[in-house]
Amino acid sequence: MIGQIIKKQFLLLWRSPVELLLLLALPVVLIVILGSALGNFMDGDSPGMHAKVAMIEHSSEREQFEKFKRDFKTDLGLTEDTVANIEKRLPIQMLKTIFHTKGISKMMELKEVSVEEKSKILQEDTYTAVIEVPEDFSYQYLSYILLDRKQAPQLQLYENEEKQLSAGAIQSIIKSFQQQLTLESLLEEKGMDQNEAALSTISVEGQQKNLEQSKPITAKEYYTVGMAVMNALFVASTIGLIAFRERQSFVFARIILANMSKWTYFTGVLCSAVIFSLIQLLVIYGFAWLIFDVSWDDLTAFILITIAFSISVGGITVLLTAISYRMHSEAVTNLFSSVIVSILALVGGSFFPIGENVQVIELIGNFTPNGSGMSAYLAILRGESIEKIGNHILFLSVFGFAMIMIAAMTFPKRGRMV
C-alpha cells in the first residue's frame, strides 16, 4: 500500500506541470544566471572594473638617484652592489611595477602625464585617480631610509568621487605600497637584509589553492550546490501541500475509512518526499555535469550526502504535513515555502558565501539542513575525504529522523483526522 501512495503522489505531481517545472527547471535557470553573473567575481576576476590612473612626476626619478649617488656615495661608503640593490628598489619604479603586474594591469591602466596637464585631468571625469609625485620624492625617500632623516616624503592621491569602487581599490594599492616602504625603512634601521622586504614585491604566478592543497571552488560549482540544496527544500512544501489538499478533497478520509493505517499514509508521504528529492538533486547535478562539467571524484561520498539530505527533506515534509493536519490549515506550509526557505538559503550560503567572513553565521548555517548539506558537497568538490564530512552526514541523518519523530507525535490521532 505504501507503494500505491508513492505512485499516487508522483501522478499528482506529474499532473501539475507548473509545480514540476519549478522544482526541476527553476534551479537550473538560477545556476546559469547566478553562475554567469557572479562567476568572475567569485573566481577572482574583475573584468567589469576598469580604472584609468594618471601619474604626475615633478622630477625624474633617475636624475634624483644619480644626484643622491653623487652627494652621498662616498659618505655612506656605498659599494657597487649596494648601489645596484638600491636602484632596483627605487620607490616610484616599484609603484609602476605594481600597476603593470598581470592581475592589476587587466583592471587598471596607468598613464604618465606631464605636470602641465594636471589641472586639465583633474577637471575631467576620465581618470579614476591621479597620483602626484612631489619634487625630489625619491631623493628624500633615499635620504629618509639611508640617512635617518626624520620626515618621510608623501605621495598625493586625488580620487574621483563618482568612481568610489575602483578609487577605493587604487587607495588600497597605495596603502600597501606605503607599508612596503615602511617595512624597508624598518629593516634598514635594524640592519637587516632588505631582500626580505623585496620578497613581498615579487610576482609569483601559479594556480590558486586553498589550505591542504584543496581544489578551488568555481562559481558554477558553488551555485550548482547552492541552488540544488535550496530548491530541494521546496519539495517539502510541495509534497506537504499535496497531502493537505488530499484532506480537503476527502481523499485522506476515504483512505482512513478503508481501514488503512494512518502510519501507512504517513510513511508513503515520507518516502515520496525522499525519493522525489533524490530525483530532483540527481537531475540538477546531472545537468551541471553535462553543461558545466561539475563532476564528483568521490561518488560514494556524493551518494551518501544526497541520501542523508533527502532524508532531512523527507522529515521536513512529514512535519509540515502533520502540522497542517493538526491546524486544519496550510498556512505553515505556505510560510515555509515563502519565507523560511529564503532565510535558510541566505544563512546556509546558497546565494553568497557570507559564512566565510562571519564565523557565527557559518556555525548557524551548518545547523540548517541546506547549509550542512552544502558544506558537505563543497568539501567533496574541494577533494576532501569522506571522513571530514562525516559530521555533516550525521547531522543531516539525525535532523531528518528528529523531524520524523516530531511529525509522528504531532500527527493527529485517528479519531480527529476524519
Q: Could you outline the blueprint of secondary structure elements for this entry?
A:
Layout: H1 2-14, H2 17-42, E1 51-57, H3 61-76, H4 80-88, H5 91-99, H6 102-105, E2 108-113, H7 118-123, E3 129-133, H8 137-146, E4 156-159, H9 164-189, H10 195-198, H11 219-248, H12 251-257, H13 262-292, H14 299-327, H15 331-348, H16 359-365, H17 369-381, H18 390-410
Parallel strand pairs: 1-2, 1-3
Antiparallel strand pairs: 3-4
Helix pairs in contact: 1-13, 2-11, 2-13, 3-8, 5-9, 11-13, 11-14, 11-15, 11-17, 13-14, 14-15, 14-17, 14-18, 15-17, 17-18
Structural commentary:
The longest helix has 31 residues, at 262-292. It is built from 18 helices and four strands. The chain has a four-stranded mixed β-sheet with strand order 2-1-3-4. The protein starts with a helix and ends in an 8-residue tail after the last helix. 67% of the residues lie in helices and 5% in strands. Helix 13 (262-292) packs across helix 14 (299-327). It has helices spanning 2-14, 17-42, 61-76, 80-88, 91-99, 102-105, 118-123, 137-146, 164-189, 195-198, 219-248, 251-257, 262-292, 299-327, 331-348, 359-365, 369-381, 390-410; strands spanning 51-57, 108-113, 129-133, 156-159.
